[in-house]
Amino acid sequence: MSQITKTTYQLPIGPIHPALKEPVMFKFEIDGEKIIAVDVELGHVHRAIEWTGMRRNPIQIIYLAERICGICSFVHPMAYCRAVENACNIQVPERADYLRVVHGELERIASHLLWAGVAAHEIGFDTVLFLTWEMREKVLDLIEYLTGNRVTKAILMIGGVRRDIKPENIPKIKETLEYFKENYKKLSHVFLDDKTFKMRSQGCGILTYEDALRLCAVGPTTRASGVKKDVRVDQPYAAYSDLDVDYMTPDKRTGEINGDVYDRIIVRLLEVKQSIELIERAVDQMPTGDIMSEPKIPKLLNYIKKTAGEGIGRDEAPRGEVIHYIKFDGVNEQPFTWKVRASTYANILPWIPMLKGQQIADISIVAASTDPCMSCTNRVTIIDKNKKYMLDKEQLHKLSVEKTRRLMR
């Protein structure tokens, strides 16, 4: 009887690998150069930010939330502040809502340009990496000019923002926006018309409309597949309802939707242009008035401490929807619970259909095309009395059910 020879083999990549910017473990089943099965293992990063936050007062948590992700250091505290504002019925002044839009869209431009440089590097096109990151320096300079910081901005406060945009700041904002409008055509041409980018990204890492819906993908990842999902449009917050935000899908540029890496590039470039326009409109239409509902922090803290309730804050981060949940018991200054769901968490499962059927050489660009951030995703490694262990699926589900029931009580 002849022995059947196995024609496939296992290929592990990660958690540390030159093509992966953050730790994640891929396990591939390979037939020749073709990927036929994919498994993803998480849990290589755990910083206990939620645990720490539940031992801090609500103002201190803002600065912890900033450090969940350096690239999304505005949207995480924004979602957190919105959760607290919903729980405590705090009304944000109208001017503060417009200021929040300006800072949020500046961060979107910075994030998408950083991603564009990383994507170019994964393809091996480092000239474009330097081009995009040179452009990104301009927006970081503007962020520093408006907030005092380039990365962790410390601009948000529960009930508003900490710093205003003054009339003398407007020329610098418009000068930077003009720079981006002048250079947008160059950026668009390099990414969308260059033969190298087309050959490496078209037809690669396809996520169908059906899979994007079924697997609950978010952000540019899902919009590139034709799913019109954007919190700024679906449930407008801050001043977005006044600014005519629309879904950015690849057919606005090409007239078709393929859901591949190329389409995900298109969506991000379209969103850079959209963000420039949103900032212009927000600056031009910004009303006068207060920028904080309560400028006295001790008074604000005392009010929150006496409030019992729960709230959810949603924000459309550059990578997709971010959700923060908060609950106060009306007795303690610290929250009863604080839970974060980063956008990468929703974009992990879509990796599987994206990678199946691809070549080994496509792994890095397909994985990078969702702009993953593992450091704001992993939360399941536990160290207890010097013993480290991992939660399996059944244990994690059991603990989730128990926590939900505890919160409902």
How would you describe this structure to a colleague?
Helix content is 47%, strand content 14%. With 409 residues, the protein is of the alpha+beta class. It is globular and about 70 Å long. The longest helix is centred in the N-terminal third of the chain and has 30 residues, at 94-123. A hairpin with a 2-residue loop joins strand 4 (156-157) and strand 5.
CATH topology of the domain at 58-339: Cytochrome-c3 Hydrogenase, chain B
CATH level-4 homologous superfamily of the domain at 58-339: Cytochrome-c3 Hydrogenase, chain B
Provide the helix percentage: 40-55%
Give the strand tally: 10
Unreliable segments (pLDDT under 50, ≥5 consecutive)?
none
Q: Which strands sit side by side, in order, in the main sheet?
A: 1-2-3
| Overall average pLDDT | 89
What's this, in brief?
The chain has a domain at about 60-340: Cytochrome-c3 Hydrogenase, chain B, CATH 1.10.645. It is about 45% helix and about 15% strand.
Sum up the structure in keywords.
409 residues; alpha+beta; three-stranded antiparallel beta sheet; 17 helices; 10 strands; 14% strand
Compile the SSE list and pairings.
Elements lengths: L8 E5 L11 E7 L2 E8 L7 H5 L4 H9 L8 H14 L5 H30 L2 H22 L8 E2 L2 E2 L8 H23 L2 H7 L7 H6 L4 H5 L7 H4 L16 H4 L6 H25 L11 H9 L2 E10 L2 E10 L7 E5 L1 H4 L4 H5 L7 H6 L12 E4 L2 E4 L2 H16 L1
Antiparallel strand pairs: 1-2, 2-3, 4-5, 6-7, 7-8, 9-10
Helix pairs in contact: 2-3, 4-5, 4-12, 5-6, 6-12
